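Page header: ASSEMBLY MODEL / two components / 883 residues total.
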Amino acid sequence: MITTVLIVDDDTDILFLYQKMLECIGVEVVGTALDGEEAVQIFKSFQRKPDIILMDHRMPKKNGLEATKEILSINNRVKIIFASADSSIEKEALSVGAISFKEKPFSIEKIKNNLLKAMNLNQ
Amino acid sequence: MINEINDDLNKLLEILKIITEQSLVGIIIIQDGKLIYFNKRVSETSGYSIEEIKGWNPNDFLKVIHPEDRESVAEQARKRQLADPEVIDKNKFRIIRKNGEIAWIRVSTKRINYEGRTANLVMINDITDKIKSEQKLKGSEEKFRNIADHSLVAISVLQDGVYKYFNDKLVEINGYSAEEIRNWAPNEFAKIIHPEDREFVMEQARKKQTGDSDVINQYQFRIKRKDGEIRWIEIFSKTINYEGQPADLIMTNDITDKKKIEQKLKESEEKFRNIAEQSLMGISVTQDGVFKYFNDRVIESLGYSVEEIESWGPNEFAKFIYPEDREFVMEQAQKKQAGDPDVVNQYQYRIITKDGVIKWLEIFAKTINYDGHTADLAMTVDITDKIEAEQKLKESEEKFSKAFNSNALAMSISTMDEGIIIEVNDAFLKLFGFSRKEITGKTASEARLKGREERKEMLRTIEEQGSIINHETDYKTKSGEVRYGLFSFVKILLNDKPFLLTIINDITPLKIAEQKLKQSKEKYLRAYNQVEFYKDLFIHDITNNLQSLYSSIQLIDINLDENCKNNTIKDFINIIYRQINRGTELVANVRKLSQLEAEEVFIDEIDVFEVLNRSIEFLKNLFQDKKIQIKWDISSEKVLILGNNLLQDVFENILINSVRYNNNDIAEIIIKASQVEQNGISYWKLEFIDNGIGIENERKESVLSRADLDSKTTYGMGLGLSLVKKIIENYGGKVWIEDKVEGDYSKGTNVILLMQKGDH
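Prediction written out in full:
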C-alpha cells in the first residue's frame, strides 16, 4: 500500500520541493497546508486520513505544536514528523506526540529513512 | 263676791302694770293720732325721758326715725290711718336716739279696741344688737366669699356628690365652664379625675362628705381637663358643716408647673450628681476643714476609704499633701473656705497616697456657698502621667538635640506653615554649602532648594500619612549643583508647636552609579537582543533558505541521474535563483538594520513621489506575472517628508507584502496621503490600502516587530515589516496597521505611516 503524506509549511517553495522529493521516493502527497490551522482543517476533511504528516513549527495562526496536539486528539494513529530549523522545541514536539524531529536542512535520504521508520511503526 | 272680783282685777291690773312697765318690749297705744300710752321701755329705747315723750304729738315720733327710713315709716302710718289693707304690720327701721346713736327697732302694729274705739297697739323691740350682729356676720360672709371668689386657689364645697360652691379658679383648672359644673349629676365630677387616681380620690371625697374622720386631708393627683390635657393638682380638704349638712371643703392648687419644675430639678440634680460622680476629675467640697462632699475619683486618687475620709478631723486632710507643698495648699484651702478673694485658683501640687505613692495633682478651686456657708470647691486632675511624660519629653528633646546636631545626615527644622528654616545641622551646611546665617530664617524656595508647589504637595501628604520616608528626589545646592537624595519628612512638636523635620540622605554617588549601571544594563540588553535577533534570523530564515537550495540541488541531481524525471529542472533552478535573491536581500536588510542600530541616521527632506515611483517599478519587475493596479489618492503635487535612502526599502516592503499576500487576480493598492497635526508637529499620513488576505487583529502589532517569528515571507525573509518600523521610528515617525474595512481583516490591509513633513 502506498504511503500517504500531508505536508505543512508556510514557505511555498519548501512545500513544492517537499512534494517533489516525496514523489521521487514513491510517497503520495495527499495535501499541503500553509499554516497549522489549515493543516487541522484539511486533516479533518480527509475521509481517509494520511499515514504521515510532515510538520513545520513556526507558522502563522497555529504553530506546529498546537496543530499536532489538535490533530492527535482527532486521530492518534497518524504519525507526525517535525521538520523545523528550531531544535529547541524537539523535546516538546516529541512529548506532544511527534514520532521524530528532523532539523532543517535535511537530505532526501534522511527524510526517506524517517518515513520508512514511521511506516514500520505503522505496521 | 264683787269685792273679790275687784280684788282680783286690781291684782291683775297690778300684774299688767308690772309686766308693761318691766317689759323688754316697748309698748305704745295710739288712738286718733294721739299717744294714749307708752311704757318705760319706749323711753329707754329712744333715750328720751317719759316726760319728753308725753309732750310729743304723733308727728314728733317721726323726728326720732332715721332720715333714710322716715319716709317709708310715715307712708306706713298714713296707710294705717286710712286703713289701707296693704299696710305692713311688722316693720323694722332705724331711729336716732337722743344721744345721737342709731338704733334698730322692730315694730309690730296691731289694731285693737281701746275704750270702745279703734286704737293701734305698737310693740317696739330694740334689735340694734341683733342687726349689728347680723351685719357683722354678713360682712364677714361677704368678705370670705370675696376672698373665696378671687382666691388664687380653687375653692369648692362638695356635698351629695355635687359642687355646692366653687370659685372661678376651679373653672380655670379643669377647663369646664361654671354652667357645665353646676349641671353635673352627682359624682359626675369623677370624670375629670385621672383613671389611675380616681378610686382613691372618690373614696376620700365620699368620706369627707359623710363626715368620716378617717381621711387624708392633703394629697396630689392628676386630672384630665376638658381639652384632654393631663394636669397635676394638690388638694387640701376637710369635712365642714355646710347648710346644716357635712360637706367636703376642698382647696385645689394646680401644681403641674411645680411638678414639672420639680421633675426638671430632680433630673438636673441627678444629672449634676451623675456628672460629679462619673467625672474624671476629683471633685470635693471642703468646709470647716473637713470634706463635706467628695466623689469616687478623690477616693481613687488618695487611696483612703470613704469611711476614713469622713472620719478625718478638721484639717486632718493635710496629711496627704506632700510636705514641701503642704503650707501653700493648706493656706489656699483655708482662704477659699473663708471666702478670701486673694487666692490662686489653679496650681499643681503633690500628694502622698495612703500607699505612699507620690502623685501630681492639678487643682482648680474656688469659693462657693454650700449649705449657706462658704466652702472650697476643688476639682483635681491626676497629672502624674503628664508630668512624667513632660519629663521624658524634656529628656527626649535633649537627646534629639544631640542626635540632630551631631548626625551625619543633613537635617533641618522648618515651620509647618511658611516653611521657614529655623535650624539646620552641620551636615546640612556641609551638603548644601550654606553658612548657618545664610540659611536660617529663609524658606526652602527662597534658598532655591525646593519649589513652593512641591512643598504644598508634600505637606498634604504629611497631613494624610503623618510622614514621608525616603522620598527620592533631586535638589540643588547653593552652587546650583543638582544632587539626589532620599528625603524624609516628619512632623514634630517643639514646645507644643508643629514643625517639620527634614532628613536628607544624599545618594548622589549611588545615583550616578545606578544610572551608569542602568545604562550598562540597557546597552547589554540591546546587545543581547541583537544577538538573539540575528541568531533567530540565521536559525529560521537562512535555514529555510538553505533547505530550499539543498532540496532543489538534490532534485536536479536526481533528475540528471534520470531516477526521477517527473520534474522539470527549470522549476528547481528558479527556486535556486529566488533563494539566492532572498539570501542577498536578507544580508542587505541585516546590514541596514545594524546600520540603524549602530549609528545616528542622517535625515533629509525626501520627495515621496520620486521614491514611490522607483518602488512601484521594482514591484512590477518582481511580480511580472501578476496583475497589479496602483491607485493614487493624493491631492498635493508634492509630498515632502523627513527621511533618507532607506525610505525606498520601506515602500518596497509594504508594496511587496500587498502583492504577495493577495489571492485576487488583480492586486489593488491605493496610496493615500493627507496632512495631520499631532502634539504641534506636522505630519504626512501615508496609507497603503490593499485587497490582500489581511492580518488578524491579534497580529497587527506583532508583525511590526521581529518578535513575530511566524511571519516568514518569500521576499522579505521575516525582516520586512520590522525593518519598516525601525526605519520609520528613526525618522521620528510612526507606523501601524488597520483593516481596509474596519472589523473585517479579510478584506485587506491598510499600512499607515506617519512621517514628519519636510521643511518646504
